[in-house]
Specification:
Helices cover 26% and strands 8% of the residues. By secondary structure, the chain is an alpha/beta fold. The strands form 3 sheets. Strands 1-2-4 form a 3-stranded parallel beta sheet. Strands 3-5 form a two-stranded parallel ribbon. A two-stranded antiparallel sheet has the order 6-7.
């Protein structure tokens, strides 16, 4: 009984020394209150670990190559001359002779008609983006020994071995330049013609491309036809094959058909307006093709 009284006295003594119970000295029960903020650092979690201000806080990804205010990678190293103007160079996505033969065998390309950039894009397997400096296709020699088709094709770049592989089968190849506005029309002709605007004129090549497209060795579309005939014979002698006579070919008209240097589509002249809905053509008298 005496032990109980001593304990009670101690408790009463402690209560006398403690301050009165007030709102300021009341504490919640342990673990009864959860902190709803997350993160850490000087902002107390209100930034959710994304930092303070700037694009990083707003959770939009920084552009490719951005180094958060530091000196960029390409400026920390010495200047290399071969990088000059790299963002302005024309690009030509490759298409091999093997791919071309497969598309012909699977009836994605009709060899009874001339093949140009719009024909390749309409296959659904190839596409170009003029916004990224893509100016057409270059034909590569992969599968040259398996290529057997006789075609009339127009590309933007081709090597000598590719030209030999096509002419060995009795075909015709031509390299031609298209400006960005013309490329937009050629890569999706239906979408362009639905606008109801006149067909634009194709611009001539820039100064640094004139030498390529006027060369008979490259089968440029601005080259002299007589020089091209001579170079066809020279290439046949170089690669050791007998050059077929196009004049005796039953598809002579198709093989020799070509566009005017200012023309975009076969059979359609610049300035014409194509009405796909009414299926009619509004012709302009301001331009006459030379072909």
């Amino acid at each position: 009984m005496s032990q109980f009284r001593e304990t009670a006295d101690k408790a009463l003594k402690m209560l006398r020394t403690l301050p009165r119970v007030q709102i300021g000295n009341i504490r919640p029960n342990p673990q009864s209150k959860q902190n709803d903020k997350r993160g850490r650092a000087q902002h107390g979690g209100d930034k959710h670990g994304a930092g303070n201000k700037g694009s990083g806080q707003r959770q939009n990804f920084m552009r490719l190559g951005y180094e958060t205010g530091n000196t960029p990678f390409y400026m920390r190293f010495p200047y290399e001359p071969y990088y000059k103007g790299h963002h302005l160079r024309r690009q030509y996505p490759p298409i091999s002779l093997l791919q071309l033969q497969v598309m012909i065998d699977t009836d994605r390309i009709d060899v009874s008609q001339p093949i140009d950039l719009s024909t390749l894009c309409n296959t659904g397997l190839l596409s170009i983006d003029p916004a990224t400096k893509e100016f057409g296709f270059q034909l590569t020699d992969e599968g040259a020994d398996k290529f057997k088709a006789k075609i009339n094709i127009e590309v933007q770049h081709a090597k000598e071995s590719v030209i030999a592989a096509i002419e060995r089968n009795g075909g015709v190849i031509r390299t031609a330049y298209y400006d960005p506005k013309s490329l937009h029309a050629l890569k999706n002709p239906k979408k362009w013609l639905e606008k109801g605007v006149p067909i634009p004129k194709r611009m001539l090549p820039p100064q640094d491309a004139i030498s390529y497209y006027t060369s008979a060795e490259n089968r440029g579309y601005l080259a002299d036809p007589e020089e091209i005939s001579k170079q066809r014979l020279v290439l046949a002698q170089k690669y050791g094959y007998e050059l077929p006579k196009i004049e005796d070919d039953p598809q002579y008209e198709m093989l020799t058909s070509s566009k005017d240097p200012r023309q975009l589509f076969y059979g359609l002249e610049p300035g014409w307006v194509i009405n796909l809905k009414d299926q009619c053509i509004i012709k302009s008298k301001g331009y006459k093709s030379s072909v």
